[in-house]
Q: What sequence folds into this?
């Protein structure tokens, strides 16, 4: 009954090698979010889409980009991953009324 | 931007006792305050939320209180059970709708048998 699906569950990439994480949803929610959660820390908002409108957090590094080709899918692109980008990346969706539904996350390792 | 402070960082209570976790927020425009439970390696799960037009909300053993004047809100868990052991995050959202959440740093709740 997974409604926010993230693939892959675990991703290993090399230092500097571009990587893309994906998120899909069956909830038909109009808002999609990407959070970064480092070990033993709180999730930190990177950016979100309200429909097709992209909203970037002021302190999100330029190394992180996002695409939302349609309502159901959203992608997180990391152009040149560094060791400090190793984290759990959580996708979430919302109908715009507050409550967010989180995916299971993608654990990214950078070698 | 919004800043959310959460205390304590670790809380150990005896099974059956109550647990209280407290958060403060900085932006008076925030009007949506959820609490999430996260087990190791799993997604955050919403356990209860409150909006700024309500002072208290209860769901079985879990309750949340909100003091808008003081800009703080608290999570209360009564009759704690071993399965309540997890990390709990408070969060705040400006606009109460589409805006993303600002999380507190989390409280590791340990239920001692």
A:
């Amino acid at each position: 009954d997974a409604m926010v699906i993230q693939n892959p569950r675990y991703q290993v990439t090399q230092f500097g090698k571009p990587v893309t994480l994906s998120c899909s949803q069956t909830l038909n929610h109009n808002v999609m979010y990407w959070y970064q959660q480092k070990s033993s820390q709180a999730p930190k908002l990177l950016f979100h889409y309200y429909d097709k409108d992209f909203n970037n957090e002021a302190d999100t590094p330029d190394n992180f980009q996002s695409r939302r080709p349609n309502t159901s899918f959203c992608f997180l692109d990391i152009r040149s991953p560094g060791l400090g980008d190793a984290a759990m990346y959580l996708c979430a969706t919302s109908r715009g009324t507050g409550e967010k539904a989180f995916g299971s996350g993608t654990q990214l390792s950078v070698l | 931007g919004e800043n959310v402070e959460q205390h304590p960082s670790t809380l150990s209570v005896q099974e059956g006792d109550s647990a209280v976790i407290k958060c403060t927020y900085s932006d008076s425009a925030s009007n949506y305050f959820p609490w999430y439970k996260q087990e190791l390696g799993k997604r955050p799960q919403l356990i209860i939320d409150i909006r700024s037009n309500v002072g208290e909300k209860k769901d079985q053993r879990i309750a949340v209180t909100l003091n808008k004047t003081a800009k703080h809100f608290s999570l209360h868990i009564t009759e704690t059970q071993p399965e309540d052991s997890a990390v709990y995050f408070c969060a705040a959202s400006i606009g109460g709708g589409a805006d993303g959440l600002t999380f507190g740093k989390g409280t590791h709740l340990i239920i001692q048998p």
Summary: Chain A touches chain B at residues 30-31, 33, 35, 40-45, 48, 50, 55, 57-58, 90, 94, 96-100, 102-105, 107 (CB under 8 Å).
